[in-house]
Amino acid sequence: MLVHYQIDAQQLIVFEDVIASRDSSTLEHLKELSSKRRAIEESINHTSSITEAIAREISGGSTCRYEQERLRLEQYLPLLENFISHADLIRSNSQMVRWTSQLKIRWSSALNSSFFFNLTGPKFFQIDSLHFELGMSLFLYGAVLRENALERLPAELKQSAFVFRQAAGVFHYLAHEVFPYSQPQISERPPEATSSVCAAISLICLAEAQAVYIRKAEETGNTGFGVLSKLHHGVAELLGEASSALYLATAEKAISQNFLEFVSCCKVLHELQGQKYQAEVLREDGQIGIAIGVLRNALMNVEKNMPGEEAWKVIFRKEMEAAAEILRKFEHENEFIWHEKIHSADDLPLPQGNKIVKVEPYQPRRWERELAFKL
């Protein structure tokens, strides 16, 4: 859901036409930069004339769209990093400032509310900054990694979790190393170009990685209810931290309510899963009255946070039915055997979360090629 981006096709960036080179090596670098960017632009705008067979051959035989996109970005980013490292040395030069402005770097936003409600097409943001181009390209790279991780499910659980952690590392790098230093005085920028949003999405990717580990543990069947409960609550905690960061960003940016609801729904569902396992642990420990209280409270919380979108409602109802079935079984058992007092919400134990995942650090790569500009 994060890769619906567009680069303005009406304003093609040709680096070598704007920036004057001193030598053939620099000119070649700029031409390659333009070519690699155009390949990404055509791919995400769905305007490429390359056939599937050729795209597969270029990407080393991969038929996965997101894998092909990943490779394109991994070819473009080192070239861009090298170019920016040289441009930064003369960034205060009036000629470099003019060149940067003439490039007219424009990206759309997939997280901006106008993306979902603007019937005339996506809103484009133009910022005269090479670091904006780097940031949005890296954001797209992280989003593509996340989609690649999703596509690997359910066949490749271990690899999927690793790729989620890679994506988390990219967004963490953006939040701490790119956007804090990229022209903070600019008021109108897409949500993606802010540290708080990137930090939030890094946490979301970590939550998704941990959810994959839980899935693997559940399939294996040799992990205790207590451990699974803490892992689910750990996912909910990560998503709670992400929500806090997103609502902080919402004060400044118009972030899509669909995206905010996605995070909120995932959090509620993992809380429910954690409470189901917690109730099983309590029952095993002879505390069925508390277990019933936990399940009742969990179902009330889900009902209270029922989403508006029908697709989410279907998922919520399915999970609620599963929890309600366990509750009915426990209530029946208590009525005929244990006769324990049912505990109210105020008397229930607080859930305990365990976060076991960490980001896979992103290491930027740069082509070490000397560049010289004609100022």
Automatic annotation (TrEMBL):
Membrane-traversing stretches: none
Highest taxon above the source species: Eukaryota
One Pfam family cited in the UniProt record for this chain: BRO1
Gene3D superfamilies referenced in this protein's UniProt entry, alphabetically: alix/aip1 like domains
Xref: PROSITE patterns: BRO1
Recorded family membership: Belongs to the BROX family.
Protein name (Swiss-Prot/TrEMBL): BRO1 domain-containing protein
